Structure formats: structure tokens, C-alpha cells
Amino acid sequence: MKKFSAAVVGLGYWGPNILRNVIEIDEFKDVYCCDLDRSRLEMINKRFQFTKLEDNFDYILNNSDIKYVFISTPPITHYKLAKKAMENGKNVYIEKPMTTSSGEAKELIGIAKKNSVKLMVGHTFEFSPAVEKIGELIGKGVLGDLYFISMSRINLGIHQKDISVIWDLAPHDFSILFKLLNENPYKISAFSNSFVKESLKDVAFINIRFKSGIIANINVSWLSPNKVRETIIVGKKKMLIYNDTHSDEKIKIFDKGVDLVRDPENFGEYQLTYRTGNIVSPFLETTEPLKLAIKHFIDSVDNDFEPKTDGYCGLRVVKAVEAAERSSERDGEVIVIDDWK
Ligand SMILES: NC(=O)c1ccc[n+]([C@@H]2O[C@H](COP(=O)([O-])OP(=O)(O)OC[C@H]3O[C@@H](n4cnc5c(N)ncnc54)[C@H](O)[C@@H]3O)[C@@H](O)[C@H]2O)c1
After folding, report:
1. Which is the most buried residue in 14, 132, 201, 255, by most CB within 10 A?
2. Do residues 8 and 31 touch, judged by C-beta distance below 8 A?
3. Ligand 1, atom nearest to 40 Cα
4. Index of the ligand 1 atom closest to the CA of residue 73
5. Rounded CA gap, 223 and 58, in Å?
């Protein structure tokens, strides 16, 4: 017997993907769809059967059957909607970026605690089997000590109306990066520009330094002739490319590297030897990351544990985005982040 209901709030581009997974997981008595825009609700009505349509968020708040709320509205609205939902006893899954300021993110963490509800941020890629596998490989030392990570998330569009490309796309790479390294960044600097629409940055180059010595670079852009979703990881022993646009062989591990060896012929001198060996592509499960994330959220509520991508993960990403934005507004000034709480 299904006891509780769920609501998906915001059914624009991304919300229908959440809704589809919530329906497929089939854990709920009823699934409510809430959007201010009636035309979105009409569209949902045609595409998905058995959902309940609602354009008034207060109805969701006042319905005690609804225990799980998925927020997929524009980032600027996240704080207000999540706050109200949690104050009304709802467990909240909120899309990335968690909020548009770290102050708001901190407040949401406090509100979740105060109301004893779960707060999870939709850092979908952290649930991707490819990212999980890379984390496992790094953890087992397969790549050796890491040197650097280079990430690209570029395509032609979709230009957002109210947030920069840094707020829109970089949360994905920041969340992947922090999960893989299990380390908070120390210094961030960025250059960005607004080419198409004044004051809406559409390309950014972000540099990150970690205290461990690892450096990283993230290129995000809505202005590119091709779609690239690529992460290159270079370690002392091996190198890896993760290409998320590939349907198979998303990860390739290259037995490549450069070693500095003492030259026996010339005592005291060193020479470089280049290694080029096998390329291996590990098997990956094909389960949709969003489904895994949503299941994890439901599980965290039902079994009372903190979700992997909790409010602190969300806050860390928001802080990194804020630092990249601040740096790019100060012509690439290096921003040092010491306080992660
Ligand atoms: N995890 C991912 O991979 C991923 C991918 C894409 C988008 N997103 C995130 O999902 C969120 C939504 O993005 P999108 O591209 O679908 O945006 P969108 O603009 O296409 O859709 C937002 C919808 O929310 C509705 N809405 C706005 N304010 C509302 C309110 N107060 N109450 C109810 N409905 C409201 C709008 O009418 C619209 O239908 C963003 O936070 C975005 O960053 C995540």
C-alpha cells in the first residue's frame, strides 16, 4: 500500500525527465505536477497519464499526503520554494545550482535540520556509473598520483534567460571534480565574456587549485560549433578520458605517461622515456543517473540517512560558482576560499 505522494514543481525543459523517473519508480500514491504556466501542465497531461495537475504551489504545501517535493524551476526561485516546502514538512530534492547565493544555501541547510527533513541537491552526474567508476579507479590508485584534470562542457546554446553559463553549466563539473578528488578547492580564478547578450556571460574558462597540488580547468560555453562533454585526467601512472557524449566506451584508460630516468651512459643526467601502452575501456552499467539520484533521495527519506549530495555538497558548488563569478568580474583575480561551511 503506497502511503505518500510526490510533487514535481517546474515542468519546463528538465522537470519532465524528473517526472518520468518518479512515475517509473512507482513508489507514490499520487504524483502531482505543479507549474505556474498552464500550457506546460497541458503538455504534461498529454504526455503522462495519471498525474495530478496544479498551478498553485500552496496546494502542494498544504497537502499532507505529499512527502517528497522535486524542485526543477529556474535557480533564482529555488531558495523560496525549497524553504516553504521544508517549513511545511516536505523532503526536498532541488535541482542544481542549489541556490543563487551561498547565504541562501546555508539557510536551507539550517531549515532542513530544524524541520527534520531531507534536503538533496540534483548533482545528477555524481550518480553516473561513469563518474562512480572513475572515482573507484582513482581510489584504487590505478592512475597513480593525479597531476591535473581538464573539463569541457560546451555546445551551441541553450542560452539561459537569467543566469550566466557559469551558474548554468559549471555546477556539473564542480560537483564531479569535488566528488572525484574528495577535496575542496583552495583557489579559483576565471575569465569570462558575454558575447551574444550583454551582461549574460556565455563563455568561461575557470582555473582551480587544490591544496594537494592538483590543478584543474573547466571550460563552459554556449558558443561552440560542437557538443563536448569531456574530462581528461592525467596521473603519474595512467591517463583517462571520460566522454559523456559517447553511448559506449565513455571511459578510456590510457597506459601512457612520461618517466624521468637516470641515463646510465651519462652519470648524473636524466632522460625522458615516453610510455604508450594499452587502451582499456571498462564496462559500465547503463542505468540513467537521474533515476539513480531520485531513488537515492527516496531511500534517504525512507531509511533516514543523509543523501550523498546533501545541502553541504550543494553549498560547496554554489561557493565555487560564486568564486568563479567574482574572479571573472575582477579580471581573473585569484579568489582564495578557506571557509567551506
Ligand atoms: N541535473 C541536470 O542535469 C539538469 C539539466 C537541465 C536543467 N537542470 C536544472 O533544472 C532546473 C530547471 O531548468 P529548466 O531548463 O527546466 O528551466 P525551464 O525554464 O525550462 O523550466 C522551468 C519551469 O519552472 C516553471 N516555474 C517557474 N517558477 C515557478 C514557480 N514559482 N512555481 C512553479 N513553477 C515555476 C516555469 O513555468 C517553467 O515551466 C534548473 O535549476 C536547471 O539548472 C538540471
Report:
1. 201
2. yes
3. 39
4. 24
5. 39
Cell output for 48: 503522462
Residues in the chain, overall count: 341
Report if pTM > 0.90: yes
Band of residue 49 on the pLDDT scale cut at 50, 70, 90: confident
* 36 close to ligand 1 (CB < 6 Angstrom): yes
Q: What is the pLDDT of residues 125-179, one digit of tens each?
A: 999 999 999 999 999 999 999 999 999 999 998 889 899 999 999 999 999 999 9
Where helices occur in 48-160 by DSSP H, the ranges are: 57-62, 75-87, 102-114, 129-139
Structural domains of the chain sorted by starting position, each given as residue range(s) with its CATH number in brackets: 5-125+289-310 (3.40.50.720), 126-287+320-336 (3.30.360.10)
Does the CB atom of residue 289 touch ligand 1 within 6 A?
no
Of 13, 21, 296, the residue with max ligand 1 atoms within 8 A of its CB, to mutate for a pocket test, comes to: 13
